[in-house]
Amino acid sequence: MAGFGAITITAVTTAKRAMDLTGKNMIYNFHIYQFSILRFCLRILMTPIFADNFKGGGFGGLAGHSPVFDGSHAAILPVPYDGAVSYKSGAREGPGAIIEASCHVELYDTQWNVDNERLGLTLLNEVEPDVCGPEETIAKVETVYEATLDKTGFVLMLGGDHSLTTAPVRSLARRFEKTLTVVQIDAHTDLRDKYQGSPFSHACVMRRVIELAPIVQIGVRSISKVESDFIKTSGHRVYPAWDVAGQTDWIEPMVDALTENVYITFDLDGFDPSVAPGVGTPEPGGLSWGDAINIIHAIGSKRKIVGADVMELRP
């Protein structure tokens, strides 16, 4: 993109990457652990994923569901809900499929010398959707998320349709007030005020989120006229896929403008369909694996990733 200098990410030596596991306090640079957990989850998507093979094992092949947080530095929160989708259902199968596939991916991160197994992962029980509808389900997830934050420092939510993202953002916005920004990687802006009569459709999630915290949208390539008009009035930053895919010079100034604390919401249709075909509303011309990792790494290098979600897998 014209006008920006090339991004520079200082190389981190193996010694700096290494973590001190001998004491009670974890020492890590640039919040590498949160980055590594999120990248591990995205790596899972590169393995064959099926909707019918979840046998209830633990995340990453570790122990099964457990409410025990002692020694865990991250919690995995699966929410099998797709009651707010506007097209094909099936995202409710996503969390179980990701957890099952995670058993076939190495937990050790060779690039950052992070042993995710030793650092501890707590897999929570699935949050059962509320039969009353999306608003009630979001409130239920918010309650669980809030309680989880009190026990562990980082929660990765697995969806499920994108409407659920409102829940963790509500919780984190209360904690971090003016210092939270939500970075959305997505093919769609999801900025309608209502869709099919509901303000809690997955097509409205970022409209609800922007009421709570500033947002940045990356990888967009499908947008309605109504949403386009809203963007002009809101003034938030949108980075269309056709401007940023395969490019890096825009990343550093994007990160520099973020607040101290960042929540990353990753709708998997942000990827190009050649990378992640199993989504409900795919769009051509999306981000590559390298694009996504460069973005997340750059954010984690300069800001604190306080939470994240991976949404809309339709196995």
Index terms:
globular, 315 residues, Arginase, Chain A, two-stranded antiparallel sheet, disordered N terminus, 10 strands, alpha/beta
Helix content: 25-40%
Q: Helix tally?
A: 11
Which stretches are poorly predicted, pLDDT < 50 over at least 5 residues?
1-30
* Overall geometric form: globular
Oligomer: single chain
CATH superfamily: Ureohydrolase domain
How would you characterize this protein structure?
It is a single chain. This protein is an alpha/beta fold and 315 residues long. The protein has a single domain (14-311), classed as Arginase, Chain A. The chain contains eleven helices and ten strands. It has an eight-stranded parallel sheet, with helices on both faces. The chain has a two-stranded antiparallel ribbon with strand order 2-3. Helix 2 (32-44) packs antiparallel against helix 11 and helix 5 crosses helix 6 (166-176).
Short summary:
The protein is of the alpha/beta class and 315 residues long. Helices cover 30% and strands 16% of the residues.
Layout: helices, strands, pairs:
Elements (H helix, E strand, L loop, with lengths): L13 H4 L14 H13 L29 E6 L14 H9 L5 E2 L4 E2 H4 L1 E3 L10 H16 L5 E5 L6 H11 L3 E6 L19 H5 L5 E6 L4 H10 L2 E4 H4 L6 H6 L4 E7 L21 H14 L1 E8 L4
Parallel strand pairs: 1-4, 1-5, 5-10, 6-7, 6-9, 7-8, 9-10
Antiparallel strand pairs: 2-3
